[in-house]
Amino acid sequence: MQQNKSITEFIFLGLTRDPMKQKMVFIFVLFFYTGTLVGNLLIIVTIKFSRTLGTPMYFFLFYLSFADTCFSTSITPRLIVDAISEKKVISYNECMMQVFALHLFGAMEVFVLMIMAFDRYVAICKPLHYMTIMRRQVCTILIIICWIFSFIHSTTQIALTLKLPFCGPNMIDHYCCDLQPLLKLACMDTYVINLQLVANSGAICVSGFVLLMISYFIILHSLRNHSAEGRRKALSTCTSHIFVVILFFGPTIFIYTRPPTTFFIDKMVAVFYTIATPFLNPLIYTLRNTEVKNAMKKLWSIKITSDIK
User: Fold this and answer.
1) Using CA atoms, how far apart are residues 309 and 307, in angstroms rounded to an integer?
2) Which of 75, 66, 62, 64 is nearest to 32 (CA)?
3) Which terminal residue of the chain has fewer beta carbons within 10 Å of its beta carbon, N or C?
4) Short-list 112, 125, 34, 20, CA closest to 66
5) Which residues form the signal peptide (predicted)?
């Protein structure tokens, strides 16, 4: 990646500069990242090889887990290493790549969550037409569209970032590269670029959250016409989805929809959507989902039995 900036590397200030707290951050983040990898990879492998999880909901859950894994991997491993490093240095090119990956997989998660809400709407409100509307070809096209829009979004973000001239200082008051903390280091008036950031990332976050809340309100309102068992099952699914939506969109809206000001809690808020959400998603979608748990037990019991033989 070609660059004509005077700054060739950045230094992260991280979550804390206290040596004892840095060790706690290392343990905390390592635990969460390990849980994220194990949980999401279990879901990916189970859906891939299970014959009972062939419905569109699990097709989309596969890509949500994939996006979670990549999203977390674009940030967390460096944070783990930096937590035990004296100098938290990242090159200019690596920083730009991190911005691109962060927004590519973050946007992918947003769009997949929206498709999952649409899938639940069709399943609950249009059950007789569900298999016609959500046939395999349609699901594949929807995922391709998600990837295209995610790529467009991340390309826009990296284009905005590459416009910024950096001439010092080079210390990023964060634990990862993102447009907001980089704006503070730019040797130019960043007001217009910040407006573009809000118009892009902020609009995606807010519109995605509003559309999801409206769709789930319609779904929950339509449940009054269902049987008690149908309401219970649909409520269980929708409740877990709503929890994920609030946990992910709340912090992102706080970060990406405001003027270029910095608050002391910004880094802690970012922890929720960069580290906590990818960790909690597989727990929410498996612990509250009997079909996934049964498929996991069956798949891994077959695997263990075959290994013994």
Assistant:
1) 5
2) 75
3) C
4) 112
5) none
Q: How many residues does the chain have?
A: 309
Q: Which residue has the tokens 């609009």?
A: 203
Longest dimension (CA), the chain: 68
First vs last Cα of the chain: how many Å apart? Answer: 52
The rounded distance, in Å, linking the Cα atoms of 124 and 79 is 41
pLDDT of residue 153: 93
Give the tens place of pLDDT for each residue, 58-97: 899 999 999 999 999 999 999 999 988 888 899 999 999 9
Residues contacting 266, CB < 8 A, separation 6+: 174, 180, 255
Q: DSSP code of 166?
A: B
State the Cα–Cα distance between residues 48 and 62, nearest whole angstrom.
8
So what CATH class is 9-308? Answer: mainly alpha
Single-letter residue type at 61: L
- Residues 107/82, Cβ–Cβ less than 8 Å: no
Give the burial string for 4-27 (b: 16+ CB within 10 Å, else e): eeebeebebebbeeeeeebeebbe
> Which of 199, 5, 175, 151 minimizes the C-alpha distance to 79?
175
Q: Is 173 strand, coil or helix?
A: coil
Distance CA 57, CA 237 (A): 10
For the chain, domain boundaries: 9-308
Reported confidence tier of residue 303, pLDDT bands at 50, 70, 90:
low
Asked if the model's pLDDT at residue 177 lies above 80, the reply is yes
Two tokens, residue 100: 């691109």
Identity of the amino acid at 64: L
CA–CA dist 177, 174 (Å, integer): 7
Per the confidence metrics, is the pTM higher than 0.85?
yes
User: Helix, strand or coil for residue 49?
Assistant: helix
| DSSP conformation letters of 59-89 | HHHHHHHHHHHHHHHTTHHHHHHHHT-SS-E
